[in-house]
């Protein structure tokens, strides 16, 4: 996303205070001598009928791990469906949820997730991505895919998979740009991995799809993109994409949407940061009092890091879904042949505290009105490399900056060719788009309003390839 040089709005992160036990007067406390009794600190029962004598003692109960429901009220709740859902999970589980679970619900909850029901891209939406900035981005990815296809020995059938295609702009530009290379486009079976029904519809339109009813008019419906005559199908996960053919996988700004777990160094060791509900019914961060399952991934991640790297940070983000997805990609490529290209913003090392929320092009608090802002985190490219390298038969290349990647694939020649055949308005848009894709900082040529100055993404975004070793080194990583 074009994350402008905005200062990150520092959300107040109120952390769990371990000594929050409180005294509670109760009229009756069910007690049992049985060894299977529920510990007193978790079980408080108020008995009203028949009337009981006044309590003879005040009993101290540790409530720090209990959910505190807000006062009962007949006022209609202003909470959205998603907020109610999140609060219910916390309530019925009897404790806070991980940041990763929160992020996953916020982005992809099937009813009310941020991506599920609407178009969030572009000036009218919440953020803008490289394919939306300029057609040259998708065209250059097409050049990369064609070069890999050549290195693969020009197979006659290839699965071209895009993870999280957004509006479908990258794939549309790729197909338009490649349409003259008939044997390449004729080999393609396009598979779009997309969780959002609303975005699937946009992708269908963007790829100018038509549905062929099939011979018997129902079961064998096939969808064809009129941009290149290739068959297109949609899947909720990569696992659902058929195996058995060489595969080219593109993941642009997909990994940054995968849920991250956040850990914080405390006096008792690394503790997972969780999301809880306060007594006045708002969300807050707390630290888990016990070890959590994601600690296993933290340990795995730390094994890949140098000790100085860990010593220098007080927080660490880990993304188990990124590790698992990378291994799934690497396994598939190792068996079927082909390669994957991952482009995203991130670091080539441990990511400390990068999770951010963006609504209408502005940074907002991560816990504010969940479902109405995009959540994303920096991609840990070093973790991706280590995950892929655990799989035999694949090699990992990069990361290199987006600027180096697009420059080596020939974006300079492409922009010059396009500039030869356009009017002044189109030329302005091409120059701005070019700067956004490969520049660094504010464009020096900009003469318009300061707040609209194009900001380059050329060095903040990184590109990495995972390929089957048989193919050798992919362009432009030689
Ligand atoms: C940040 S957008 C990037 C869109 C596009 N690649 C671009 O660059 O414009 C993330 C995309 O991934 C999809 N997505 C996010 N999480 C997903 C998941 N778990 N499974 C499938 N699609 C997902 C979103 O619906 C959206 O299309």
TrEMBL record:
Enzyme class: transferase
GO biological process: methylation; mitochondrial respiratory chain complex I assembly
Compartments it resides in: Mitochondrion
Biased composition (Low complexity): 13-36
Protein name: Protein arginine methyltransferase NDUFAF7
Family according to the record: Belongs to the NDUFAF7 family.
The species this protein was found in: Buddleja alternifolia
Region (Disordered): 12-80
Entry's Gene Ontology cellular component terms: mitochondrion
Biased composition (Basic and acidic residues): 69-80
Lineage, opening ranks: Eukaryota, Viridiplantae, Streptophyta, Embryophyta, Tracheophyta
